Amino acid sequence: MSSDKKVQKGMTRRDFFKGAAVAGAAVAGAGALTNYAQARGHQGSGWGYGWQDEGLPLDEVHACGKDLESMMLLRSSPIGIKMLRPKDQVPEGARRPGQEESGDIIGGRLSLCQAFGLARRGNPGKTIAMFAEDHRCFEPVIAFGLKPPDATGAPDYLGGGTTYPFLIADLEAAAKHAQEDPRLPYREGSGMVFGPLKAINFIPDLVMIYCNTGQLRHLTLALGYKHAYMVNSSFYGIGSCGRAAVPPLLTGEATITIPDPGEYDRAGTTEDIMILTLPARKMKWRNLFQDMMEGLRTLNAYMSYTGFALSVRSDHPQPAFYKAFFNAWGLGG
Questions:
Q1: Of 279, 280, 236, which Cα lies nearest the Cα of 261?
Q2: Closest among 317, 255, 254, 311 to 288, alpha carbons compared
Q3: What is the C-alpha to C-alpha distance for residues 40 and 115, in angstroms, rounded to an integer?
Q4: What is the pLDDT of residues 100-154, one digit of tens each?
Q5: Which of 84, 107, 197, 282 has the most CB within a 10 Å radius?
Q6: pLDDT tens string 62-71
Q7: pTM, 2 dp
Q8: Is the dihedral of CA 158, 162, 167, 172 positive or negative?
Q9: Rounded distance between C-alpha atoms, residue 127 and residue 93, angstroms
Q10: What is d(CA 178, CA 143) in angstroms, rounded to the nearest whole number?
Q11: Beta-strand runs (E) in the chain
């Protein structure tokens, strides 16, 4: 199939990706099968560098969830996420998509973005556990190591088969993109559990916050309060569930992610939303979530998120240290 083939006018996004999957099945493999974790050597205890503590006490986790919602005026609850190894017990009360008889959760398999939406909305939202058989989208099944990416008969994911030529025009670039995507090592039987931070009954590995850009600005200020921490992220418009959660597990760093089309089409995420994810346990000898909450609570005393107001005017008031700079430069007045 030619790489300059155009998407047919009037084709829906669903048709678009359906076509990509069919085309991918015929694409030959390209290059070494190297994933994000292997390429960087960060194996640790299984997830990246490995955890260095047991996380914050559960009552403090709940208090952090409530403070985030009230201080930041979030539209939905921050999510606490815990990865489950093959023999880990699913926390009591966690629901499984498609395995519920109570009628309080969608009855079939879900895309992960949909399940995140159920977890973060409502009061207090739902705690959900997902294993490979609970998913409806292929991306998180690969990204979280629930099934291997090179299964016989499937599209050649590592060869670029799910993006070439519909999203990426060059086959070699598509293969490199897939091979460098963040992925956890494959572990048969592994899974994850997640729920609203203010109400979960387990210590989370990660905290994921859906927020608008103004809220994101303030959260990054809070993250930088203790040690001038800065978030470094790479952005791509597909696979946001994996891009949001896997890098913090592997690297111990916070990340910012653009919600992908599935978030809009299937999970009701609005177009002003971004995703901030950070480790909730100590990694690299610091706990970024704890640092952010300390910064947020400190800033709240004198520069709260709700304290900013629009005031467009010339010669606007200047803080004292602004004036000191301008006077030193001979620009005062």
A1: 236
A2: 254
A3: 30
A4: 655 555 678 999 999 999 999 988 889 999 999 999 999 999 999 999 999 999 9
A5: 197
A6: 999 999 999 9
A7: 0.86
A8: positive
A9: 7
A10: 10
A11: 79-84, 128-131, 191-196, 206-212, 255-257, 273-279
Token pair belonging to 37: 């974790």
Q: Classify burial at 204, counting beta carbons within 10 Å of its beta carbon; exposed 0-12, middle 13-18, buried 19 or more.
A: buried
| CA distances to 174, 202, 241 from 139, in Å | 15, 25, 8
**Residue 199 has which token pair?**
């109400």
Q: Residue 206: phi, psi to the nearest 5?
A: -130, 155
Amino acid at position 321, single letter: F
Residue 10: count of CB within 10 angstroms of its CB: 6
Token couple for 312: 């467009």
Whole-angstrom distance, CA of residue 88 vs CA of residue 4: 48
How far is the C-alpha of 95 from the C-alpha of 32, rounded, in Å? 38
The domain spans of the chain are 32-302
**Quick one: tokens of 299?**
């800033």
Tokens of 102: 């109570």
Q: Position of tokens 């400190």?
A: 298
